[in-house]
Write a structure and sequence with these properties.
32% of the residues lie in helices and 20% in strands. It is of the alpha+beta class. It folds into two domains: 42 residues, Pemi-like Protein 1, Chain: D (Ribbon), CATH 2.10.260; 48 residues, no CATH class.
C-alpha cells in the first residue's frame, strides 16, 4: 500500500482483500488502532445499538397510579421552562438575560423539579 496526499491529509487505499474480509462498503465507519510501532489494525465499526426498540409504547405499558402521572398535552403556544432558563437569568450575559426575560414574561410551564435542581446548582 502506498500513502498518498488527499487535500491536507494523508490517505491509504484499502486493498480489495481487506475490503472483502471486513465486508466494507462506501460510507462505512472504520477504526484504525496502532498495534505496535510498525503495525496497525483496521476494525469495522459496529452500528450503534438501538436500546429503545424493545420498549414499544412505554406509556401504554406503565400502570397509571394517579391523575398526577397522566400525560397532559401542552398548549401549542405554551413554553416549558427548564432549569437552564433560571441559571441564564442569574449568570447569563445581558443579551441572554433580555431574551429570557421577554420569553418568561409571556408565561409558561415549569416543572416542580426545576426549583430543586436550581437550588442544588445555583
Amino acid at each position: 500500500m502506498q500513502v498518498a496526499k488527499w487535500r491536507i491529509s494523508l490517505a491509504v487505499r484499502l486493498p480489495a482483500a481487506i475490503v472483502k474480509a471486513l465486508q466494507l462498503k462506501e460510507g462505512d465507519d472504520i477504526a484504525i488502532h496502532i498495534a505496535n510501532e510498525r503495525v496497525f489494525e483496521i476494525e469495522k465499526s459496529r452500528p450503534p445499538k438501538n436500546y429503545w426498540q424493545n420498549f414499544g409504547n412505554t406509556e401504554a405499558a406503565c400502570r397509571k397510579v394517579s391523575s398526577l402521572t397522566a400525560s397532559k398535552p401542552m398548549k401549542a403556544d405554551s413554553s416549558f421552562f427548564d432549569t437552564n432558563i433560571l441559571l441564564y437569568l442569574l449568570y447569563g450575559n445581558s443579551d441572554q438575560v433580555a431574551c429570557i426575560e421577554a420569553i418568561v414574561t409571556k408565561g409558561g410551564i415549569i416543572s416542580d423539579l426545576v426549583p430543586n435542581e436550581f437550588a442544588s446548582v445555583a
